[in-house]
Amino acid sequence: MRTQYIEHGILVRPLETAATNFLSSRFYDGRRINDLLGTTNSAHSWMTTLHRAIQFPRTPFTPHERQLATLRTLRGAVEATYRACVDGDATAVADHLSRVLDHADIHIGMAHAASGIAATWSTTPEDPYSELIAQIAVTAALSVTDQAATQLRKCQAPRCVLYYTQHNSRQHWCSDVCGNRVRVARASKSR
């Protein structure tokens, strides 16, 4: 299975958590930074594509402008949480994670789904926006605590803004594409 791929201009990362995929709504494509939370239409396309590929979010929707602004603020808080985790600053992780969790009304439950029983994360699982926020908050907390925190990394490729789960000790980039960019840059410098 590929660690990540582009589908319809959307970055899909099947091996990463929902929160990490949420952060990936802003990514470097080799030419520029793409922000898929820039407009309501691009946010809806991002949700629909990820839903089809990795079932996140559970129910895609078109956010209105206020929801979109909150999602961008939440993305900044998740990124700050991840950065503090990678930097090894436990106090900052706790502070930033509290900001992330403040966005969500978390209540763990279950619902029947086509594939069986599915976990729900908010007090209003029928509201796609509340459920999305809660799912991001829960998976962000799981990504920066316990064993998962020791595997969280920031891609070392120039201009890449992505975080990833390190699956082996030799992995330094979020993808082979970023690894190739670094190698080409090194080769160009040595000439």
Explain the overall architecture.
This protein has 191 residues and is an alpha+beta fold. It has one domain (5-190): Orthogonal Bundle (Jann2411-like fold), CATH 1.10.3300.10. 49% of the residues lie in helices and 17% in strands. It is built from seven helices and eight strands. The chain has a two-stranded antiparallel ribbon with strand order 1-2. The chain has a two-stranded antiparallel sheet with strand order 3-4. The chain is globular, with a radius of gyration of 17 Å.
What's the helix and strand layout?
Elements: E1 5-7, E2 10-12, H1 18-23, E3 26-28, E4 33-35, H2 40-54, H3 65-87, H4 90-102, E5 106-113, E6 116-122, H5 128-143, H6 146-151, E7 152-154, E8 163-165, H7 176-190
Antiparallel strand pairs: 1-2, 3-4, 5-6, 7-8
Helix pairs in contact: 3-4, 3-5
